[in-house]
Fold:
Amino acid sequence: MIPFLDLKNLNLRLSDEFKKAADLVLSNGQYILGNQVSSFENAFAEFCNSDHCIGVGSGLDALTILLEGYKTLGKLQTGDGIIVPANTFIATILAISKAGLVPVLVEPNQDTFNLCPTKVKEAISANTKAIMAVHLYGQMAPMNELKALAEQHHLLLFEDAAQAHGALIDGKKAGAWSDAAAFSFYPGKNLGALGDAGAITTSDAELNSIVRNYRNYGSEVKYVHTQKGVNSRLDELQAAFLSIKLKSLEADNGLRRAMAERYKKDIVNPLIHTPNHPANALSHVWHLYVIRCEQRDRLKLYLHQKGIETLIHYPIPPHKQAAFAELNHLQFPITEKIHNEVLSLPIYPGLSDSNQLKIIAALNAFE
Ligand SMILES: *Cc1c(COP(=O)(O)O)cnc(C)c1O
Structure:
């Protein structure tokens, strides 16, 4: 079986370094918000061309906390509308709704799977206060255009960068294009921990100090609480592991790009649509390689029978989920078509050339 993702071997490459880091944390005796967290925060802020990075417990928490932070600052109010792509992962929508804000779902561009500036513009109403771009599958949303729209309409701009660590446009990384961005370090992400972890990046000094306290019971000085915060702190051990993995992120993203190029070049079956490759190759880090096929379910089964594991990102769009009954009446034909046709192929550092060739041969033989 060719696994969809071989995380174990990916992490075992770094086994010796991880063990040393764990020993260091053990001998330091400082387990919460210690040196490992602050040194990863500094390294990741610098990596993202952002002034600040605040480590939190997960990507979902990063999204929720950055929204809560802008509510605390008075820049967002309960009930404000946040424009968000209708085809995103559920966490983006959950965070908006958990923060008491209203997700305004907008159809994506069918070729990029990302927000389309024209459709965003049409969706802006008097209630709209922010745009949440999602760099889906690792490809950056059209940030120049979205930034111009946000400025023109006095909206806040955010990034859900959970799938796009290291992607860049015009020399500026994902996480540095907006008022604040959320990252996930879920193990399977391009930069993944050995457990749950996340971070917010921002160059807004006010937001930085608010969320830094919010993640820690709303407290800067111990037992003095200025906000009704939460407990969502980046773990000291996970921070140590992430600092190690950050060093190979660029190289790993390069391997993903080379694999994507090979899929693009060698998949020649007219029943299968390979994804759009952006003119600027650096703006995509290929967290996922997502093909489209009208007979997706049959293709998935066929590949499974050939020993190739694939996944669907995502089988059910947020507006069709039982958890969002209030959105179930909405119709988004592009989003629904995407959810019916997409299939994610294996793409990760450690996927061998010979296995990638097997996947390509199987796809080309599908009829
Ligand atoms: C993974 C992911 C999240 C949530 O991250 P967690 O760390 O699992 O909470 C949010 N948004 C997107 C687009 C993601 O892919």
